Amino acid sequence: MSEISFHDLSSASAEQRASLLKRAEADLSVFVEKVRPILEAVRTEGDAALLRFVRDLDKADVAAGSLKVSEAEFDAAFGKVDKDVIDSIRFGITNIRHFHEEQRPETMWLKEVRPGAYAGDRYTPIGSVALYVPRGKGAFPSVTMMTSVPAVIAGVPQIAIVTPPTADGSVDAATLVAARFAGVETVYKCGGAHAVAAVAYGTETVKPALKIVGPGSPWVVAAKSLLSSIIDTGLPAGPSEAIIFADDSVDGGLAALDLLIEAEHGPDSSAYLVTHSRKVADAALAA
């Protein structure tokens, strides 16, 4: 919490206020030009290019034939994660599932707008989706939880996770635990632009998807931008932002924890607590 700073807006200058409102910005043009040959290589060479980029860019040792996480790797993950963490993942997924179940619309509704004339909507899940789970600045099983659960509830028949492997070629154990609890059994060991290309074009191992969701680095964002006519890339994700407006009834310590959930994603994240209560501010600073 030492990086948290305090600002009194009542005495702040116009320049100081403006600096607080600035958001992280990245010039993607540099990344776009670097990403183009990566996408083309994966499109034309398939697994061979994907394995090469996993080795050179993800800095991971993944053997041919091991791009997809095996059943044994899923099983072994549970022995590598503390029981308290496993219980927390299960608890979180239960809550996320309850929320998204309430969001799910009726499969179909019709209304007779005039005698013999009906109009309505029919909701059907898309055929496939890829979930990008980053790992560059840490492990994010929470991203697995937040993207997997709604896809499963929607009834998407083909769901796959792509995530950068560790140096030894394994996938973060907590991410695999979260995937299994959510109901996703397909995980590919690749990240960055090459992972986006793999799910857009398909390779010998990676099945192509109709849509990709999840946050990623500027390399991922640039790849999504270039491939948006091939695969539905949704809205750009990141940098993470959070703001909490609090009166004096709020627990400042809990507010600080809520902000850390977003701030932990990286140095380009923004997390603010706005309050007129010095008691709340001091509690957040001390948390």
Brief description of this entry?
Helices cover 45% and strands 14% of the residues. A four-stranded parallel sheet has the order 5-4-3-6, sandwiched between helices. A two-stranded antiparallel ribbon has the order 1-2.
What does the model show?
By secondary structure, the chain is an alpha/beta fold. The protein folds into 2 domains: 179 residues, Rossmann fold (3-Layer(aba) Sandwich); 48 residues, no CATH class. Helices cover 45% and strands 14% of the residues. The strands form 3 sheets. It has a 4-stranded parallel β-sheet, sandwiched between helices. The chain is globular, with a radius of gyration of 22 Å.
Salient structural properties:
287 residues, alpha/beta, Rossmann fold, four-stranded parallel β-sheet, two-stranded antiparallel sheet, globular
List the helices and strands and how they pair.
Elements: H1 14-21, H2 28-45, H3 47-56, H4 71-77, H5 83-103, E1 108-114, E2 117-122, E3 128-132, H6 141-154, E4 158-163, H7 173-182, E5 187-189, H8 192-201, E6 212-213, H9 218-226, E7 241-246, H10 252-263, E8 270-275, H11 278-286
Parallel strand pairs: 3-4, 3-6, 4-5, 7-8
Antiparallel strand pairs: 1-2
The radius of gyration computed from the alpha-carbon positions, rounded to a whole number of angstroms, is 22 Å
Got a strand count? Answer: 8
Overall tally of domains? 2
Query: What is the overall pLDDT average?
Result: 91
| Number of separate helices | 11
Could you tell me the CATH topology label of the largest domain. Rossmann fold
Question: What percent of residues adopt helix (DSSP H or I)?
Answer: 40-55%
List low-confidence stretches.
Answer: none
CATH class annotation of the largest domain: Alpha Beta
CATH superfamily of the largest domain: Nitrogenase molybdenum iron protein domain
| General form | globular
Distance between the termini: 7 Å
